[in-house]
Design goal:
By secondary structure, the protein is of the alpha+beta class. The protein is 43% helix and 10% strand. It contains 17 helices and 12 strands.
């Protein structure tokens, strides 16, 4: 029998209306739909198969698929992180490996383009680093004076994972004793919305106002959350331009990778696995309760001529008729009424399949959030090779996230700080405000994140030594990956220690440096983990 003979396409409401008006047209339409269902080249597109005939989808835009569900997705994502250990582990594991204690900055200007000697360039970089450190280490960099820059990094990244995106507004506040007035305000995703919670319309979606090209023009930000009890009066919105008159962004929109074109807002990291996490949480709670109940036992006392429970410690009085007796403590003793008895209950716990089943769910959740289940569960019980492969795969994801974080948050903030320092006369940078190429040369920087995890330091050190001897890596990269710091800082410390100890000779590593390029020159973009 042909596929056409087995095809069954259920008539839709439109099909029935057309058939009622014109039976001939309705029949032709149904035949055409049946032919299309059979002619599909992909099984996943067939409408006449048992597995897909009830699967109804719409090819909508990115915003139409995302914006209507964001409020619920954010609320459920935050609830899971508050109450589910697996969800909490997912967020904290990524934050620890992507942000850690904060990125370490190393200014690295393009001395050749700027026509500077290496000595002058290094001196400028040291001055820029001193200014940045003074600003970033102070809580005045936060408009609320609550966090340092490294703490704000952690807040911004965690908020991005929880809510899908987060916004940072450039502010300016003169504080006593501070060199600069630049500061930042972190705004949670919920507060960026259409004024008065109005419906989306052309040029305004999810609180983002856009031009004809789809580029952001302004952001509409509420003064507080809708359910914030600390506020007084109705919620009000403020329109903040996306860019200032100098072309620099006034609002930083920090988010994850863009999955589809024309995407305005972003879903939380846990969105694909919310249902799996919630069901796992319920199952785990049920198993725990069953184990508790199976560990409880009760003793019932019967007497035809008196109350035996009066002389027994822990015995309860007779329960009134129709009242439920709950076993919440092990070893309870009950005085039973005539003709009453305690029925034994055996839930068969602990369940031997509980552990393997939870492990399978953890694998599914880890795949959905791009995190190997070994790191998600903090459990490495496989072989060395399998554990090493899990860490390597996770590290690729961490590098990608770190690149997005640095590009969207760290680099623009550093640009603001150095620009204000130059405008205030603390640094000299000719062409910074007039020549885009010179500006790029002055603002070059390398951001070093947390050290790369290792499960066998000796093997990794041996591999690094061989790679360095081959000339395919540098001490800068090795130091950044393994220890999360700048090799130039380590070299200066070693030199000071040697001088203090009265030792002679070059610092360790100097004799094995490749002739070219210099070991601390990693401007090819691959020698550190910032991108």
């Amino acid at each position: 029998m042909s596929h056409m003979g087995r095809a069954r396409v259920a008539p839709t409401l439109i099909d029935r209306v057309i058939a009622w008006v014109s039976p001939g047209a309705g029949l032709r339409r149904l035949r055409a739909r049946t032919a299309m269902a059979v002619a599909s080249g992909y099984l996943g597109a067939r409408r006449n198969r048992t597995a897909t005939q009830e699967w109804s989808t719409l090819a909508s835009s990115a915003d139409a698929d995302t914006l209507p569900d964001l409020d619920v997705l954010r609320a459920r994502s935050r609830d899971l992180v508050r109450n589910d250990p697996l969800a909490q582990s997912a967020v904290s594991t990524k934050a620890v490996n992507v942000i850690g204690t904060g990125h370490v900055l190393r200014p690295e200007i393009d001395a050749r383009r700027l026509g500077l000697s290496e000595a002058v360039a290094e001196r400028w970089e040291e001055d820029a680093l001193d200014i940045w450190t003074e600003w970033a280490a102070s809580r005045d960099c936060d408009v609320t004076r609550a966090q340092t820059f490294s703490e704000m990094e952690d807040l911004v990244y965690r908020s991005r994972l929880l809510s899908g995106d987060v916004f940072v507004i450039r502010r300016f506040r003169r504080r006593p004793g501070r060199l600069l007035g630049s500061c930042l305000q972190v705004v949670e995703a919920d507060r960026v919305s259409n004024p008065a919670r109005a419906m989306d319309k052309p040029g305004l979606s999810g609180g983002v106002e856009m031009d004809a090209d789809g580029a952001p023009l302004a952001y509409h930000i509420a003064d507080r959350h809708d359910f914030d009890v600390a506020g007084a009066g109705p919620v009000t919105w403020r329109r903040i331009p996306a860019y200032g008159s100098d072309g620099r962004p006034l609002v930083l929109h920090v988010h994850g990778p863009r999955w589809r074109p024309d995407m305005t807002r972003y879903a939380p990291m846990l969105a694909p696995v919310i249902e799996s996490l919630k069901q796992r949480s319920r199952y785990s709670e049920a198993e725990l309760m069953a184990a508790v109940v199976s560990a409880c036992f009760a003793i019932g006392l019967k007497s035809s001529d008196g109350d035996l429970s009066s002389g027994l410690k822990g015995a309860s009085s007779a329960a009134p008729a129709n009242q439920e007796i709950r076993l919440t403590e092990p070893g309870q003793i009950f005085d039973l009424q005539p003709d009453e008895e305690i029925q034994s209950f055996s839930p068969g716990r602990p369940n031997a399949q509980f552990g393997p089943f939870i492990d399978v769910l953890a694998r599914e959740v880890g795949a959905g959030i791009d995190l190997p289940h070994e790191l998600l569960l903090k459990s490495f019980q496989a072989s060395y090779s399998a554990s090493r492969a899990a860490i390597e795969m996770a590290w690729q994801s961490f590098r990608t996230d770190r690149a997005h974080h640095v590009a969207q948050f760290c680099a623009p903030v550093y640009e603001d700080v150095i620009s204000e320092a130059v405008a205030a006369g603390l640094l000299k940078a000719p062409g910074l405000f007039s020549d885009p190429l010179a500006r790029r040369a002055w603002l070059g920087a390398v951001w070093t994140g947390p050290a790369r995890p290792t499960i066998d330091p000796v093997k990794d050190a041996t591999a690094d030594e061989k790679y360095h001897a081959l000339g395919v890596t540098s001490l800068t990269r090795i130091t950044a990956e393994r220890f999360g710091t700048d090799w130039r800082v380590v070299r200066r410390r070693i030199e000071r220690e040697r001088a203090a100890a009265g030792a002679a000779g070059p610092a360790p590593g100097a004799a094995v440096e490749p002739a070219a390029p210099p070991v601390d020159d990693d401007r090819d973009g691959d020698d550190t983990e910032e991108s």
